[in-house]
Amino acid sequence: MIRHIDTATIELTEFKEKNPKRFQELLEEGIKIGRGEKVKEWGVSKTTVEEIRKKYIPKDPAAAALTNAVIDGDKEEAAKLTQKLLDAGKNPTDVVVGALMPGIQVVCETYDMGEAFVPEILLANDAMVAGVVLCQKKLGNIPSAGKVASLVIEGDVHDIGKNIVAAILRANGFEVIDMGRDVLVEDVVELVKTQKIDLITGTSLMSTTKEGLKSLAESIAFSGVPVACGGAAVDEHFVATFSNAVYGKSPLDAVKIAKAVTSGKKWDEIRKMK
């Protein structure tokens, strides 16, 4: 029992250091509960899934059908509906931006709410890519929004988060170099020396490997390429301990960071935006 109490005390202290504001809120809520007062219900989203769908699904019925196919992760249907729009004379870029991308956006935002799961994002991405491929064939290469390298740092082989980030970046028009998992810092250094890279996204699920992100950010600082850091083992307080890096909590944050970088903002400017 004593050992369990000691462990809980350590975890509570770490939580207080990492999330002082939330710690204080929980403390105040505990006091109110003790008094029999009603407290705010946490974890209840103000935005509903239907509101998100309404926000992104296009008004045009044909485009909306394609968006819904992406949301449903129906690869074959997405390809069929994309081809139908192209055959009807629709601009390929408009199909990507106005019908395919909104679908993945819906799934990502519902994922952030806890109303969607990793497999749904991956299926939606496959459906979107099926449509994008057809649009590229029709138009040629769709102009890239920028080039991002995505990786899991050395020592860590958990790549689901990295795959989601890469999928969302591609959905938003970025060219993504997927370096894989258990990636050495020196391999990233070589990459930024030989290719024009706008951003590196690095993830770490294990606390034993997260220091690799710090080493990575510092090792490529010479190039001016920043590192967007994320993953279960990483938080904003950790990333704040080193330079040339920005913390991203969700896959959508990676898109925001990438857009900020390609618009000319430096890593320290982006930190202040968050």
From TrEMBL:
Residues annotated as domain B12-binding: 145-268
Biological process per Gene Ontology, one example term: tetrahydrofolate metabolic process
Record keywords, A-Z: Cobalt, Metal-binding
Source organism superkingdom: Archaea
Stretches that traverse the bilayer: none
GO cellular component: cytosol
SUPFAM superfamilies: Cobalamin (vitamin B12)-binding domain (SSF52242), Methionine synthase domain (SSF47644)
One MF annotation (Gene Ontology) recorded for this entry: methionine synthase activity
Domain B12-binding N-terminal: 53-147
Record-linked Pfam families: B12-binding, B12-binding_2
Entries under InterPro entries matching the protein: Cbl-bd_cap, Cobalamin-bd, Cobalamin-bd_sf, Met_Synthase/Corrinoid, Meth_synthase_dom
Protein family: Belongs to the methylamine corrinoid protein family.
Protein name: Methylthiol:coenzyme M methyltransferase corrinoid protein
Source species: Methanolapillus millepedarum
